[in-house]
Amino acid sequence: MNPYKHKTQIQIRFKDVDRLGHVNNANHITYFELARVEYFNALMGDVKIDWESESLILAKMEMEYKQPILLEDKLFCYTWVSRIGSKSFDMSCTIVREINGVEVEAAKGLAVIVCFNYKTNQTITVPDHWKKKMLGE
Q1: What is the pLDDT of residues 33-75, one digit of tens each?
Q2: Please, are residues 92 and 64 in contact by the beta-carbon 8 Å criterion?
Q3: Other CB atoms closer than 10 Å to residue 21's CB: what's the count?
Q4: CA-CA distance, 5 to 93, in Å (whole number)?
Q5: Which end of the chain has fewer CB atoms surrounding its CB within 10 Å, N or C?
Q6: Does residue 7 come out as left (phi exceeding 0), alpha (psi in the -120 to 50 range) or beta?
Q7: What distance in Å separates the CA atoms of residue 31 and residue 23, rounded to the nearest whole number?
Q8: How far apart are alpha carbons 92 and 113 in whole angstroms?
């Protein structure tokens, strides 16, 4: 699979930093969530999604922490679809710190996303027009 990768700049807020001077681990998942939203906005472009009938629900989230993130860091999150199933897909991410122009991985994650219809309260198959865009077709 040749995934469409998206890069999102992350703004680190003062409230994200804990007493030890680094970004608290709970914020990494929020950064990934922000990047997922930006991914879909960029991927779908002008295509309007009916989020009540063609929506998403987070089923599982994993995060592996590699190194601390500091308040002054220039931070980015790369996001891509790493697996497409019939009713779900995996979104992978890597959070990088830019240090002297070089990107250094600070964390990586994986989210299992289930396609969901909130009108019927049931899972649905991954919409074909989403798959095509995810695969770059």
Answers
A1: 999 999 988 888 877 888 889 999 999 999 999 999 999 999 9
A2: no
A3: 9
A4: 9
A5: C
A6: beta
A7: 11
A8: 11
Query: 6-134 has which CATH code?
Result: 3.10.129.10
Tokens 């040749």 -> residue: 2
CA dihedral defined by 95, 99, 102, 106, rounded to 10 degrees?
-20
Kindly report whether the global pTM for this prediction surpasses the value 0.85: yes
